[in-house]
Write a structure and sequence with these properties.
Mean pLDDT: 80
Protein name: Microcin ABC transporter permease
Largest sheet: none
InterPro entries: MetI-like (IPR000515), MetI-like_sf (IPR035906)
Subcellular location: Cell membrane
Number of domains: 2
Keywords: Cell membrane, Membrane, Transmembrane, Transmembrane helix, Transport
Strand content: under 5%
Membrane topology: Multi-pass membrane protein
CATH class of the largest domain: Mainly Alpha
Number of strands: 0
Order of helices and strands: HHHHHHHHHHHHHHH
CATH superfamily of the largest domain: MetI-like
Structural class: mainly alpha
Radius of gyration: 26 Å
Shape: globular
Amino acid sequence: MGSYILKRLLLMVPTLFGVLLVSFVVIQFVPGGPVEQMVSQLQGRAAGGEGPSAGGSAYRGRQGLSAQQVNEIRALYGFDKPPVERFWQMLKAFATFDLGQSFYQRKAVWELVKEKLPVSISLGLWTFFISYLIAVPLGVAKAVRAGSRFDFVTTLIVLIGYAIPGFVLGVALLVVFGGQLQWFPLRGLTSANWAQLSWGARIVDYLWHIVLPVTAMVLGSFAVTAMLTKNAFLEEIRKQYVLTARAKGLREKQILWKHVMRNALIPIITGFPAAFIGAFFTGSLLIETLFSLDGLGLLSYESVIRRDYPVVLGTLYLFTLIGLVTKLISDLCYVWVDPRVKFD
């Protein structure tokens, strides 16, 4: 196992390099970068408001600015250096986990990520725990009652829920429960006077605000886990050792929870680390935008739109690294859950 872990760790290096290289190359050909945006804004101010703020967002070249001024702007954003040198400097910074500084928000990328994490953690963790708490028992119940009316009805409900996009459900929840009935707030993670509330009132206020966004995210996320649990249990129930246990006179509950459960939950448990770690960095752009939640999803979208390249590449590096490590942990869980698995 030690050699396998070492190989996987070494393979992360070219994987990270490839992801960053492809992203960096693509960025070089994307129009409307920070230099062009700054030049356009300066031209708009010089022309008395004829710029992006006045509706003229098209870049018309370097009219009104000298070549020296444009070069100073390029140097300000680091575009005065060749692409190869800029890419190499970025790699050296990432090697020390220096993700750079945002072009527009004048903050370090690490600070921006830490600012947005509470929102994404709130949505991700609640979605993760609620999904597993619903999906696993539901999958077991469906497997035990396979072919029954309960199995048919729940499968229909799960598939319908899976087919409805989260943002469509979110709109419906906002219109019905936030607008017409006014049972839940329409926006934000807490109320404006949250700091003045008592601890008990703060908890109630927080839970009151996350009901609708978490519901919109949970509906589709638990469907895959529920069906996976059902199929895993059905496969184990049909195996020879279950028939042998029944022939020995063991009770069905004892067979199900003591023997079948240990083997059927292997695919669920091995995917648990990836789902749990991913919950900390879950960023749903549409849900966050719909409910006015300033999380990682909205940060990533705004960074791409505004061509804030340090934020784009810094968060890409961070999330890719976390994803690779989490994938390795998930693979190692196979051995922990089932010692029969051999990596060679």
